[in-house]
Amino acid sequence: MMNAQRVFERAKPFLGVVFLQFGFAGMDVLSKAALNQGMSNYVLVVYRHAVATAVIAPFAVLLDKKIRPKMTLPIFMKIIALSLLEPVIDQNLYFMGMKYTTATFAAAMTNILPAITFVMACILRLEKLKIKSIRTQAKVVGTAATVGGAMVMTVMKGPILHLFWTKGTSGHQGEAGGISLAHSIKGSLMITVGCFSWACFMILQAITLKTYPAELSLTAWICLLGTLEGTAVALVMERGNPAVWSLKWDTKLMAAAYSGVVCSGLAYYIQGVIMKNRGPVFVTAFSPLCMVIVAIMGSFILGEQIFLGRVIGATIIIAGLYLVVWGKSNDYKSTSPIIEDQKQISDQSSISTGKDNSNHQVITITTSEEGIEPAMNK
User: Fold this and answer.
1) Total domains, the chain
2) Residue 156 is part of which domain span?
3) Which residues does UniProt call coiled coil (predicted)?
4) Of 92, 104, 116, 111, nearest to 184 (Cα)?
């Protein structure tokens, strides 16, 4: 029972980031479908964070009451920057890039996120770096591979891979996969800039959590200010077109609700919790999983075609990614098994002090049945 609990505790960060990638994959497919139906990316961003604020804020008010620190001007300025970097800049550029490309392509391009985050973390000394270490060398080579793989996916097409579930797709339906080189480059540039903004968000969130260690409250603030800032941007970009704000019971509403709850509310909170112990590079290191899920879902649901060049680029990205993950595998082993066992004994122990009949101090430590029961007389 104890071993199973320890395994689960160690697996929680991995389960968390895998859940995030499944959530992002669903968002990519739903958002692409909504954008294809003419939904404005600016309006989608606003509705997404309005939903996230409505869902997260009540939990933040109730659950963070005892741990929420006092709001100061420096903290508030960081939150304003956070709400601008990811909810406004990154998401609008990401959705605009998706318009020019496909959901699969957009998800694949985000694989440069770990590389950008890694470089920034090294510059800010949030990441351990020893040039002579083979694990550090693996991080550097893996980082370069992710960037190279993303470039291959951008400029290289190759033949279409005819999968058994896409054989019935007509050439017209598959045009979403056959994007032009000009649109591919334009979309990739937008997504790249968005990834840089996202990486800045990750780094700044990790820094902010050190002075404002209330993940739910921080998430609620980011979503609220992101809604206000996104609304200002949308009103400017969509001025004279009030029809874009209308919603019906369709894919547009589903995309806004799903991405708001899962990909803003839960995602900001989960990545904040994981980041406290594992750092921002670990959180971004599983992006290729999202690409694989989106590629499968996109070909099933949206009829997107898969090209050999993108499979080759994706393979390079995944190989580079897991070099980075292997290089980081020792970075967050905070304690040895012996120390962990001692810590668990300490957590299960009760300590009592007193004096015996000869006026000597007595310290007694009692533990559970699995522990030990030493006593020391002084």
Assistant:
1) 1
2) 1-163+180-330
3) none
4) 104
